[in-house]
Write a structure and sequence with these properties.
Elements (H helix, E strand, L loop, with lengths): L13 H22 L5 H7 L1 H17 L4 H52 L22 H4 L6 H4 L7 H11 L3
Helix pairs in contact: 1-2, 1-3, 1-4, 2-3, 2-4, 3-4
């Protein structure tokens, strides 16, 4: 009958508890530094010197807390740092493409405003057509046919093909749409 000798529980020293408090203080300082700056708080939490030092200190003495109630504190501190880094990367991966789309929308809008402003200076309508060939209306006259084309869309600002209102209506009549 070989009975295993009971394993002594690791000793928790007051120094290790103070050490854990110090690490919490460094993480708190990193967050406070984030609030005191123009950068995003999670980025400052992960990439500031106090937070990086805190994680290094966590890894340096994690073995001393193993098997004690302090182990959960060390685990939480390390895990919080790495999850913050993970979510910063996920947020960046999602927001960068969205920012590119947003910039594209602003550029398209600026192009439309510029083009329509030029049309306004020329005394032209908001239509793609410059002159209605069926009625002979000039470009600054608004006819019932040209009112059909006053809807706002990207084709008005950046037409792929140039056609008159009369051509558009003739094509629609041929298809039986009007």
């Amino acid at each position: 009958m070989n009975e295993a000798a009971p394993v002594a529980a690791p000793q928790i020293t007051a120094g290790l508890i103070r050490y854990t408090h110090l690490i919490y203080g460094l993480h708190a300082l990193a967050v406070l530094l984030g609030f005191g700056s123009v950068s995003w708080v999670p980025v400052r939490f992960v990439f500031s010197l106090p937070s990086i030092v805190a994680v290094i200190l966590n890894y340096a003495r994690r073995h001393e807390a193993r098997g004690t109630w302090l182990e959960s504190h060390f685990h939480w501190q390390i895990r919080t740092f790495w999850f913050a880094l993970l979510w910063i990367l996920v947020t960046a991966l999602v927001s960068v493409p969205l920012m590119i789309i947003l910039i594209g929308v602003y550029v398209a809008y600026l192009g439309m405003v510029t083009r329509f402003s030029v049309r306004l200076d020329d005394g032209d309508t908001m239509t793609v057509a410059r002159q209605n060939s069926s009625t002979g209306a000039q470009k600054n006259e608004l006819t019932p046919e040209s009112r059909v084309m006053l809807s706002w869309d990207l084709n008005d600002a950046f037409p792929l093909t140039s056609h008159s209102v009369a051509e558009t209506q003739l094509g629609a009549q041929a298809k039986g749409a009007i």
